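Hi all, long-time lurker, first post. I run a small reading group and we've been trying to get comfortable going from sequence to structure in the token notation. Rather than ask abstract questions, I figured I'd post a concrete chain and ask someone more experienced to write out its structure so we can walk through it together at our next meeting. Sequence below, copied exactly:
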Amino acid sequence: MPVTGTGTPMRRTADGPGPEAMVAVRDLVRTYGGGPAAVRALRGVTFEVPRGELVAVRGRSGAGKTTLLNLVGGLDRPDAGRVAVDGVDLAGLGERRLLELRRERVGFVFQTFGLIPTLTAAENVGVPLRLRRAPRHEREARVELLLSLVGLREHAAQRPGELSGGQQQRVAIARALANRPALLLADEPTGQLDTRTRETVLELLRAVVDSEGATVLLTTHDDELLRRADRVFELRDGVVTAGR
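-- Answer (accepted) --
Happy to help. Here is the structure in token form:
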């Protein structure tokens, strides 16, 4: 059963999001460990990501950026606060529905890439399409297009261990876009790319927003990526302290 319409809709209220928000975060708290050694990664974060925008979160290492993406993507649960994606309150979803949400609406680009080492680049990109049982011809055409867009068509048959870090990052980005996600979450997507490839990825992320109407929420230290974002938030010590 698809996730559409499931969960608890977060309708507009005095303190709730409007219908234009793809992501709505309210008073989000996440703490790791306990006692004197406890680490408060997020300390009451509140913000919204409008639909169809490229939104960047910047901040020093340890500021809570990756934790925030994991909570928005339903990979982790908050200690307090609320997260809504596309109008659905994640707290109202069980693990099966969270899995459906991630499969159908959300694409992920992790710093560690998350590629399957035994699969080729093309097979890795095609995994999300296989999970939703896309016809073979559709799957192959989409994979070829995405590998071409990230400049890796000639490397389609190579496995991750045969690719450089930058090439693996590009495969990860192509895979995240395979199902045309409504929301793309990316953790430092240009962090390991050379100048030329970085420019290609920047243009691709911008095109995903402008041409396909997707929403992109990413973390970055890349000044050029920050400049091209529609909106920028800053996380400092687990709190949103600034934005534009």
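A couple of things your group might point at:
Residues 162 and 168 are 9 Å apart (CA to CA).
The chain has one domain: 53-76+93-243.
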